[in-house]
Fold this protein.
Amino acid sequence: MTAASADLIVTAATIRTVSTGAPAAEAFAVRDGRIAAIGSRAEAEVFRGPATRMLDLGGAAVYPGFVDVHNHHALAGRTELFELVLPPSLTLAEILDRVREKAHGLPEDAWIVGGVVATTLLPSLSSTATRRMLDDAAGGRPVMIVEDSRHNRWASTRALELAGITTGSPAPGGVTLLDETDGAPTGVLLEAAGIPVQEAYDRSGGLTADQHRAASRRGIELASSFGITAFQDAGVSTDILGALAALDRDGELDAWVVSSLLINDEIFGFDPIGAPLIARGEEHRTAHHRPDFVKIFLDGVPPARTASFLEPYLEDAAHGAHFHGETTMTFAELHRWLRSVAERGLGAKVHCTGDGSARLVLDVAERLRADGFTTPIQIAHGQFLAESDIPRLAALDVAADISPFIWFPGVIPQALAEVLGDRAEHSQPNRALLDAGALVAGGSDWPVSESPNPLEGIQGLVTRADPLGRAPGVLWPEQAITAEEALRVFTRNSAEAMGLGAETGSLEVGKSADFVVLDRDAVGGPATEIIDARVLSTWFAGREVWSRPEG
């Protein structure tokens, strides 16, 4: 093979490059894991040598590898490998049956950990009587189950005891829901109130280093099966950092990974966080793993009334008629953290599910930009934004990290409507954001969403309906975007938001040869059939890292 010869030449009926200059191609050549040429078949053939592999994909479609700007890959892998998996559609009786099955044969004080339970179930779980039902199903064992937003937990009596949560001694943070009759903790723990239970589980042994590595590997395998070749993990521990670095050093990391180092921790129970975690980020940097962002939880989630809004929630007995929710930081505190990380050259992903918290991020970003800082800033999840704030994202170079998987009609929008009323119908103003020039990046928030399938997210962005047909209706259809725009959201835009725009996100000369092969041109057909396309194979740095089993 000559020096100029390609290792691989790919031809297909449809090749979407997501490049602004040449959006389509007939073929491309790959050398040393990068694209050496792309364009016509003749232009690629120039790089053909005696050892070049020729891959003619016939009528298949080739897209850049999908890029997920917001997931929790290790949590997803851990859940599948080591925990009790509960679909969110289960009833209380069905959940208890699954717990009972899991408990059978376990040691007397073994933990049962898993999820999820639906947000809409939390009110019915919040009683001493229901907690005792969980105790009975588990045979008195400690149980910790997360709900579908992964912000809240349901714990058994034994788990509460091990965490030091008792009548008269609630968890130090978040909200410990108490029984209206006897005043005892119900086991429903909102936001940081669940962290002591997580810490009690960790003290019992938690996962080993090998198990953390296996969890990361499995999470990446699952992502690869959906054509994902790059992602940003939205909140990591030192265990996850170590697992990713070890995988890459051993040549087993089959994706670009950007890690978000936790500044504060309202839900995970990781230790260390903040400055000590940031100080350790660089020791885990490898060729494909970049600990380039921090993560700040600026509020919680609307169904638990822990998100911060400019206008008050609907009235309820606990909060009254004028409750807006709260942010976890003041302007001064958020500015201090973001300026500090900017001085270190790091970006920031800021969790904001209310328009009040999003306003605060934009106000701080305005100060930082005025001071000359260009650090990347993402608003996650950006589902509610004041109309006057939408143009500010582009003006202040703040990216919108959106999660279409969790807002189209279904359980979560139903839960939003119960606390927000008609406002819940005006979620995810994506058309307005794009028209205003904002960088809109696509994330799954998997495993909060059941699947990281980007085709599901793309179809939801276009139709504003549930791609899986689980719930009827559409959500604010005026905010629909085109299929081509949605593909860009889940490829080039996400890569740019993560700081990987020079490496991946489009098929262009010099970029990593990361691509996905589909059985059809999903975005070129009917919008309601995008999700029907099947991933045939996924390629990272010119290597096939996943292929669909035959049969």
